[in-house]
Each structure stands twice: as structure tokens, then as C-alpha cells.
Amino acid sequence: MMNQNVLWRVLLTASLSALLAGATSAVAQVGTHEDNVKLDVGSYPVDIQHGYKLFASKCSECHSLTPSLKQSRSAEGWAQEVRRMQAMASSHINDREAHLITNFLVYVDVHRSAAAGDTASGGAGGSPEQAGKQTFDSYGCSSCHSVGGAGNTSAPLDGIGSKETADALKKLITSPPSESSMPAMDVPAKDLNNLVAYLLSLK
Amino acid sequence: MIVRSHLVSIFCATGALVAVLMPRQAAAVPQYARRFGITCYACHTIPPVLNEQGYMFQKLGHHLPPALEVSRPVERIIDLVRKEREWTIANNASFAVSDFSYQAQKNTQQGQGSTSTSAIEVGAWNAYFGGWLPDTNFFYYSEFDIVTNGVTSPNMPNAHIGYVGGTARNSWYGIVGREHLEVSEGTRASEVYSLLPNSPLIFENQGPTNFILDQSPVGAAVGYTWASSMYKRIASVNMKVTDGDNADGSEILGTSSKNGKDIWADADFWYAPESGVSVITYQGKKSQIQNLGLANQFTYNARIRREGAFANYMIGRDKVDLLGGYLHGDDDWQDPTTQAPGTYLTNGGFGEADYYIWRGLALASRYDRLRQDVTGGLHPTTLEQWQVGAEKAFTPMGNVVGRIAGGNSHGVDPVALTGSASRTIEADIQFNF
Questions:
Q1: Which end of chain A is more exposed for a tag (fewer CB within 10 A), N or C?
Q2: What's the pLDDT band for B268 if we cut at 50, 70, 90?
Q3: What sign has the CA pseudo-torsion A59, A64, A66, A71?
Q4: Cβ of A88 and B274 within 8 Å?
Q5: What is the average pLDDT across B154-170?
Q6: CB under 8 Å to B293, separation ≥6 — which residues?
């Protein structure tokens, strides 16, 4: 005759392990479920990768990650949106995490728009930075600016990537401050994104 | 032996069935999540245990609590209403909420040997309608139960309409209608819903009147809620006045001569992340029928009182939750044989530890203890219960959840003074669409 204690213990262990087995498969599923937005996280700078990890865990708590990966905002816009999410009840996101997530979102935004621009312009190939270099040349920026000594050296743009954010650059190019002698350049969005990606790479 | 292996196979079969039936991705989601395009986890630590956001959602009349920042102007409720998506039936109704359960129990009664039972049933099949009236501060909530505890008996335990005013920071509401305790009434430790299939003993109090805290009265409730920036602190006071409920929680409808009046008040305080304290008081007077249907049936008008305090402390971010509660009961009582008046005192408490392993999977263990002391009884008696269990969500959305728990309880009936013990294994699974 089977001991009853043993029976109950067996039942409980069996069912708990069944639950846990189910659980492990579900986790992998959540982790890979990204609704046809493809991210090549491995190629990102280390702090952006860190931002991605936080984004994937923190921002998936309440909704899918997809809208954040598809929408386009300025750097300030993303900072505000993340701040808004942070200020929701139960969001459990601290300031440091919010900062890293914002950097990740801005990075992805800039690179995605750049990549989209690539395909739109007939798949020029290469990286957004390369496409941006071409744009820089074709819009005649070098008639007033230089990079690495090439071009008009009265207004060098070396190191601009570590001085300005993507959003600030977009503004500087399309609507520079009125007191500036930089003309407002009418650059369409896809070229602008490439251009900014290129300028951001000038560190 | 045959019976037992039968039990085992039923159990495994349930497990297998559950595994096969699990959809990979939810085809549809409950109405609130549908309405805002969010997952259940936005408002639930694990459905249906509410987090702060879920609590605020309820207090703001079924509107999502907006971001509360020092630097931004606080939104008025009407601003939230204006931001609402278009009213559709899909974002106001949850059509199929069903609950399948399996229970195996072994009872040992002093002097009577032991009995074993097991059952699989469709526990509940419900439809919920909850939402807001377009462009107004009015909200409503109703629940139609088609199947309850395996029995088809259509009824409507909840049907109320409310008005919410003020701002996201300082809001107040008024509700009239009929309502059970909702899933949450108070902070985490005082939620009637538990990660374990059996809610804490003290919520289903053992008093002579079998009074349970989850009633279905008709009445009015008012409340005021305050929240600090980033919802780091939330404070709320609520009061309910109701009429028309039997002492055992069944409803007085039609021409019943029974009568029941209740006042309920509670004060809740949350501090981020997810810790909180609730104090409640309940005072009621209800006619109680003793020895129902027997020759010596009699009725008396019992006063029922409850006072309780509950608290939880969440360690880390949704990691380990320590919960505890105490409830004191003081009811009028008349001996079923002698009709001698007296009192029935109860002092109950529970302690619980929940471990959220990751999103959608939690383990829970709880100890409950209830001391009961009845006039005419020989001595105070104790009822103790241990439970361990797990709850798991099977979809990324979190709308299909299963629970399993094993438990052990033993104690002495304070009136009959007979001892009994029972062991239970329970599993249930809920589908919310």
C-alpha cells in the first residue's frame, strides 16, 4: 500500500514541475517576439546594447515594444516619452535606466530612418554614415565646412558628433538659429537622417 | 489503489490538456487591455493581482492613471475622458471569462474516519461589461455569471454606475448599485484574490453567521484618492453603505422578511514600489436564521463587527512580496439549542510570502491561523492552514493564468468541539478574453 504522504508529495512535485517546464518555453517566446522589427543588437556600441537590454525588459512590461521601435521622435521627444512612461504608476524605471533607454531609442531611431532612406534611394548600399557622406558632398556643405581638413576650413565640423545630439543637428541644418550665418538647408527627411548619422560619426 | 492511480492519471491528463490548449499568442484580450493596447501586466503583478497602476485605474473610474510629474500640470479626470479611444463594444466588454478547476481533497473527521473526493468542473463562465460613458465622467461595471461553481445559474452579482471627479492627483468617486467586493479592495494584503486558490481564511470568516467579507449588497460607496508625483505614494479612503444582504452573503431579493444593513470603511496607503497598508472596519446588523428548515428554527438580529489591518512589503521590484493581515471579529450569537445569547469572537491572521520568479510566474506560500471563542464553548479553538502553490500566465499578454496549490488544514470546531483535518490539491485555469 502506497503511503499517502508520498502520493501527495508526488502529485505536488509533478504538477509544479509541469508548470515550471511550461514557464521556460514561454520565456524564450517572449524574448524573441518582436513583431517583424529586426534589430542587429550585436553591432551596437556597448552602452547602446545596455540600453537595449533595459528597454527590452522594462518597456515590455505593459505593452509591446513594437511602437517604440517604429515611431520616430526627436531626441528630446524620446527623452520626454520615456520620462512620461517613468512617471506612470508601477513603471519601476529609475533615472539612470531612463537615460540609457532614451539613448538606445534615439540611436535606433536615427539608424532606422537612415536605413529606410537607403532603401528608398534605390539601395545605395553601405551604412547610413556612408550615404550621409555622399549627401554632405551633394548638398555642397563642404563649400562652407571642412571635415578632416577637406573642404572650407573656416567652419570645421570635426568632432561635431560628440558635441550635438541627432535632434539638435537636424534643427541646426534645417532651421539654424537666425543670428547664425548658416543658411537653412532644405534637406528631405531621408537624406537628413543619413546626413545626421554621418555627422554623429564625426567624433 | 485503483482510485489513487486514477487520481494521478486525471491529474496528469489535466496537465497535458492544459499544455496542449495553451495558445501561443492570445487571439483577443480583455477589454481594458484592448482599449489601451497594453498587456495585463500594466495593471497586474500577475493577473488578477492588481499593482498600483491597476488600483489607480479602478479609483479613477476605469481610466488609466496618466504620468504624474512635478513639472507637468496635473490632468483633470475630464482630460482623461477626452483622451479615451472611441467607445466600442470590444473595448467595453469581456465576453468569455472562464475558469476550469480541479480539486482533490481528503478529509479526516474526528471519530468518523476519512473521505476523499476529487472533481473537475467548469468553475465559472462570465461576461463583464466595464467602461465609461462616452465623453462623461460616468463609468460602469457589471458582471453576468452564467456558470458559477459548475452550476448554470445566470445571475448578475455586480451592476453599478459611478461618477469620478477631480484630478489624477486628487480624485473622488461615488458609486451606486450592486457590487461584490471587486478583485481588489485595498492594498495587496487585503485583496480577496490571492495567488493561492483559497483566499486567506479570515476573509471567509467562520462566524456563526458564516458572514463573509465578499458580499453582494445594494448600496452606495464614496471614496477619495490622493497620489504623489510618480505615484510614489497613494492614499485612499473609502466608505460603503449597503442594505439588503443576508448574513451569509446570499442576496435578499423579492419579499424576504430578512434584513441587513452594513457600513464598510477602509483606508489604504501605498508606497512604491508596490508596498502598502490597509485598515478596514465593517459594522453590520443582519437577521440570522438558525437551524434553517428544522422544527427549532429561530431568527435573531445579529450584530456583526470586523476590524482589520493588512500590510505587504515588496522587496526589490516585483521580486519578493511579504504579506500579512489580522482581522478581529465580534458577532452576536445565539446557541442553536438553548437559544442563549452570547458572543462569537474570532481573531485571525495570516502571513504569506510570494516570490515572483519572473514576469508571469510566481510561487506563494501562506500560513493562516484562526482563533475562535464562543459563549458556551469549552475553550477557544484554533484552525490552522498551510498552503504552497504556484501561479503562471501562459500567454505573453497574461490573459490565461493557471494556479496550482497544495494545502493542509486542521482544527477544532468551536461549537461541536470536534477536530478535523484535510489535505487539498487544487488547480485552476482562467481564460480571459
A1: N
A2: very high
A3: negative
A4: no
A5: 90
A6: none
User: Closest Cα of chain B to A114: distance in Å?
Assistant: 28
Instruction: Give the number of other Cβ atoms within 10 Å of residue A136's Cβ.
Output: 20
Q: Hey, are the CB atoms on A23 and B425 less than 8 Å from each other?
A: no
Could you tell me the three cell numbers for A29?
A: 517566446
B260 has pLDDT over 90: no
Q: How far apart are CA A66 and CA A112, in angstroms?
A: 13
3-state secondary structure chain A: CCCHHHHHHHHHHHHHHHHHHHHHHHHHHHHHCCCCCCCCHHHCCHHHHHHHHHHHHHCCCCCCCHHHHHCCCCHHHHHHHHHHHHCCCCCCCCHHHHHHHHHHHHHHHHHHHHHHHHHHCCCCCCCHHHHHHHHHHHCCHHHCEEECCEECCCEECCCHHHHCCHHHHHHHHHCCCCCCCCCCCCCCHHHHHHHHHHHHCCC
pLDDT of residue A35 exceeding 60, the answer is: no
B432 and B97 Cβ atoms separated by less than 8 Å: yes
**Greater pLDDT, B363 or A197:** B363
Q: Do A27 and B357 touch (CB under 8 A)?
A: no
> Residue B124: what residue type?
A
A4 touching B, CB under 8 A? yes
Does position B30 have pLDDT exceeding 50, yes or no? yes
Domain A126-203 fold is Cytochrome Bc1 Complex; Chain D, domain 2 (1.10.760)
Q: Are strands A145-147 and A155-156 parallel, antiparallel or unpaired?
A: parallel
Q: What is the pLDDT of residue B243?
A: 74
In total, the C-beta contacts within 8 angstroms joining chain A to chain B are: 117
On whether any CB of chain B is under 8 Å from the CB of A25, the answer is no
Q: Is A189 exposed, middle or buried (0-12, 13-18, 19+ CB in 10 A)?
A: middle
The overall average pLDDT reported for chain B is 81
Peptide bond just before B30 cis, omega within 30 deg: no
Euclidean distance between CA atoms A101 and B168, whole angstroms? 26
**pLDDT tens track for B195-226:** 887 778 887 655 555 555 555 567 888 999 99
| A90-135 pLDDT per residue, tens | 888 999 999 999 999 999 988 876 666 544 443 344 677 877 887 7
Q: Which of B404, B422, B429 to mutate to test the interface with A (most CBs of A within 10 A)?
A: B404
Q: What is the pLDDT of residues A141-193, one digit of tens each?
A: 777 788 887 777 778 898 888 888 888 888 888 888 877 777 777 777 878 88
Hey, is B352 helix, strand or coil?
Answer: strand
Measured between beta carbons, the chain B residues lying within 8 angstroms of A64 are 37, 39
